[in-house]
Structures are given as structure tokens and as C-alpha cells.
Description:
Helices cover 33% and strands 15% of the residues.
Amino acid sequence: MLFRKKRLTTPKTQAAAKQRMLSANSPFAIKEAYNSIRAKLLFTGKGEKCPVFAVTSAMMHDGKTTNAVNLAISIASTMKRVLLIDGDMRKPTVHRYFGLENKNGLSEILAGLTNEVKIRKTDVENLHVLTSGQIPPNPAELFGSKQMDILLAYVKDYFDYVIIDTPPVNVVSDAAILAEKITGYVFVVQSGKNHYNELSYALETIQQMNGNVVGMVLNDVTGKSSSHYGGGYRAYRQGYYKGYYRRGYGYGGYYSNYESSYESKPELKTQKPKTEQKPDSQSTEQQ
Length: 287
């Protein structure tokens, strides 16, 4: 008999997202689990001044965003300055966890629509967020751009760790494109849901891009899990591709000035990045 896991749905509201966030009231076992992950991750920075880790998964609904948020919170609790970047420009969610407006974010910077990096403070001490911004027509191209290299080099001067939430590897190519730009990948695997072949394909994709997988997080370890590890992955993956976009995980809507402005990309300003306490509050320089 197969026990199939109920898929982890994306939180639609800030209240729903907050219920998944690590806090002082979280159960001891959960806090210790993230402490363990954090401790192991801090030793994989290759001696870099500011390691950059991408949190991803093989398929959708594995809990990657929640784990990216909670991992960032856990590292920030050690008095390290952490920047959490919502790199899922196709289906952004990070802003909901912190009650932020999703504008003037990553996509606008990479597309050259602005050269001002607005980084928002959160209620979590030492944790800052760069939201995804508008949904662009070309997320993968933006990830592979020179502007992404400039942005990462820029934020490394002001933070101790950078965590990037990225789309699933087996669905779109965005995460894999970052392979040579980051320290490594943290793979989130949902217990009892992911097929062995899904994970194998995802890891193979990252390895082909010379990416470094620093570890895997087994998520949602509750109850009895399924053991359906059958073959035929390629055909299954193609079907999932269609379903993924049918559920809205595609390009979405975007402003027409993306097309006209993409060719002229201003360099990022050399001044300190701006931070905001709340979505509409006045920007102040980081201290």
C-alpha cells in the first residue's frame, strides 16, 4: 500500500506564511534541526568572506522557500548579517513571509530598470530581504547576466551570508544557471514525495553545470512515506512541465517597459545599499 504525501502548498497570505517561520515559539525539535543544518552549512563556505547559497528543490511544492527563510533566520540568530534574496522571479513568495511589497526588487535591478539596490529590513535582527520584483519575461537570462555578477559582488561587501531562494531545478533552468556564481546549493527534499529519479536528474543537471551541492534537507518528516520510485521519469517530467505552467508558474504578467529598457543596463551605484524598515517607509542607509 502506498501512502502519498499531501503536497506542500504555497502560502497565499502573510498569516499563512508566518505560521511556517522559525521563531522563539517554534518547537524545540524544529529549532534544533535548523541549528544542525546551520552548523554544517557554516563550515562549507570555502573560506569566503560572504558565502552565497542557493536553496532549491527537484520539483515544486517541496518546501524550498520555507526552508530558505528559516535557514536565513537561523544564521541571522548567530549575529551574522544575512541577505535573503527572492530569486524565484517566476513565482515569488518570500515577500509574504515578511509582509513586504514586492516592488523595486531583483528583477528590476537585473533588467537595468534601476541601479539602486533597495534592501528591506525585517523584524528579525540581522536579516534583510531583497524581494524578487516584477515578474519578468526572461528570468533565466537575467540570472546569467553580467548584472547578476555585479549585484552579488556588491552585496558581499555588506553581508556575511547570502541565501537565494530559486525555482525547482527540474522545471526551469534558472537555478542551474547560478552554478558558477555561488558557493553551493542546498537541496530541499520532501519526505515520501520525491522520486529517486527526480532527485537524480536534478543533481545531474547541477553537476553538468559544475555546481556544488553542499547538502540536502529532508523536509516534512511526518507519518508514513511513499516508496514509489518507479521508472519512466523522462515522460513524467515532460508532463509535469505542462502542469507547472498551467498552475501559473510561468512568466506571468510584466510591464511593457521591460522589453524597451533591457538593452541599456546602468551599472550599480557604489554607495551603500538602501534599507527600508517597512514597505512604504523612507529609505535609510545601512549602518
